[in-house]
Amino acid sequence: MNFSGKTALVTGGSRGIGRAVCLELAKGGANVALCYAGNASAAQETVSACQALGAKALAVRCNVAKSQEVSAFVETAISAFGSVHILVNNAGITRDGLLMTMKEDAFDAVVETNLKGAFLCMKAVARPMMRQRYGRIVNLSSVVGLRGNAGQVNYAASKAGVIGMTKSLAKELASRGVTVNAVAPGFIETDMTAAMPDAAKAATLASIPMGRLGAAEDVARTAAFLSSEEAAYITGQVLAVDGGMSM
Predict the structure, then answer these.
(1) Which of 13, 103, 126, 207 has the fewest CB atoms in 10 Å of its CB?
(2) Over the stretch 175-203, which tens digit does the pLDDT of each residue have?
(3) Into how many domains does the chain fold?
(4) Which residues of 158-185 are buried (b: 16+ CB within 10 A; e: fewer)?
């Protein structure tokens, strides 16, 4: 996949799936602008890895739930690279707990980052993409958004909401040459899943028909495909990368 001359914005790009997406796009020659919540050293490691692949890259600290910070992130990328062609909304958090004991701020924090953050980023890039009549938006949802999961009412709500936004915006932007799709990862080896209790990991693994965990690179390659010319006639779709978990 050739991304030469394209600029990609990746939220939550400092580690895990976000870093893998940055590297996959950099391999194809894209300029990469990533944002991160707080780990500046990890973000710089991703920037250096992209540059080692021959790509131009930069990192911006940004809380995706804050519209002013999102606008500044997008403006910085456009100022550095001239335009924006690809947006991958990857930033996300969890605050797990059963509904009966879940604090209201735990619900709000997850929805604000995972759902409102994706909304703000899409809104910020929509106008420049429409103006150039070209764009690729890829939103990271989750298998949890497709099938739910006990103890993750907030996370499931946010990721199901991402799917609804994806399909709605795909209809709004299709005539302007902008595609909007979602990727729904299953159980992927990341820092987030590493924090799960062993019993929960074992139960989840047993529910995967392929019998193994996914890798961040599995998700990154899918996001890159949906960002490419090869996917030009695909929009409003949700592609599960989950080893068959959501069947």
Answers:
(1) 103
(2) 999 999 999 999 998 876 777 778 878 88
(3) 1
(4) bbbbbbebbbebbeebeeeebbbbbbbb
What's the CA gap between 37 and 34, in Å, rounded? 10
Which structural domain range is residue 171 located in?
7-239
155 is catalytic: yes
Q: Whole-prediction pTM value?
A: 0.95
Counted residue by residue, the chain has a size of: 247
Q: CA separation (Å) from 109 to 26, 51, 87, 119, 154? A: 31, 33, 22, 15, 9
pLDDT digits (tens, 9 = 90+) for 139-170: 999 999 999 999 999 999 999 999 999 999 99
What is the SS3 string spanning 65-88? CCHHHHHHHHHHHHHHHCCCCEEE
Q: What is the CATH number of the domain that holds 57?
A: 3.40.50.720
